[in-house]
Amino acid sequence: MNEVRQSSNSRRAKGAKGVSWGLALISALLGLSFFIPTNYYITRPGSAIELAPMIEVEGGKKDESGSFMLTTVRMGEANLAWYIYAQMSPDAELMQKELVVSQGESNEDFVRREQAVMDNSQKLAEAVAFRLAGYDVKVEKQGVWVMGTIDGLPAKKVLKIGDVITSVDGIPTPEAADLLAVLSKKKAGDSVEIAYIRDGQEAKTVITLVPLPDSKSVGIGVRPDNKQNIVIPKKVNIASQGIGGPSAGLMMTLEIYDQLETNTDLTKGYKIAGTGTISLDGTVGRIGGINHKVVAADKAGAEIFFAPQDTPGADSNYEEALATAKRIGTKMQIVPVKNVSDAVAYLQSQKQKTS
Predict the structure, then answer these.
(1) Predicted pLDDT at 10
(2) Taking the model in full, what pTM does it have?
(3) Which of 17, 69, 134, 258 is deepest in the core (most CB within 10 A)?
(4) Angle value at C-alpha 279, between 276 and 281, nearest 5 degrees
(5) Domain named PDZ: which ranges (predicted)?
(6) What secondary structure does DSSP assign to 25-62, as a single string?
């Protein structure tokens, strides 16, 4: 009898040791998964941030009964642990690195590009808001903004993100279209003198043109945008440190406009979130990660969410936002906008919220 008990106890002891070793192995593998890289970035819901504390308009008012909020997406390099998490969570997505960071682009370059785009978005928001409020706004074309350089092409060695190309061979290039027009008259092997501005300092360099990938054209290998100097009649301070990209354009426009319109409260007491790029004519453009932004806005208690109605059909930002709202069961109203004037008209049509 004692021998049977001892044998049973021995089996239990061995079983317990087996479970302990199994748990230890699983823990070790989980720990290692945080150090194993993948070729993906992971995106998740970020936050909804009130804009009034971030934006100060000279002579403007800040007596909103509600609030305007920008929405963000959390993004980072996905290790194996995050990769596995993304396979199981409906609120996480994986993106291949090359879709986020251009080939040969460092993380520093990526951050610099995102900040440059945010700076441009702020200026456009100021211009649109002031024009909506009836002020004169001057727009001066400054040149071609370098938003990226292509790995393996000539510009990569001499130009940086944020540089502004002002001329090619002495011919002014106030816009990206002008740069393309000048280069279209050249052929591979031709050398051109590029004049540019970096950190306020003028400089020149000579670049030899090469055929562009997947194109019949020749070029220097930059991703261009238009750099503009926007002159508004009042000072605007925007404290957006740590937030990059162009997608807050619409919501910044609404906050600035509301501060300028001192006789009205555009919020009507509602918590209003949203997203979308802004163009000089007030057009609201498509953005990425709108599903994550809807989730972030809902968690922050937003009651209205503006979504770009960029294209008709199921692929539009608006339709994607609607689908996400339905999935999470939010009561938040999803409102489609093509132009900032659509958002203003919608808010003006709302009744004042009563507590």
Answers:
(1) 54
(2) 0.80
(3) 258
(4) 125
(5) 115-200
(6) HHHHHHHHHTT-EEEEEEEEEEEEEESTTTEEETT---
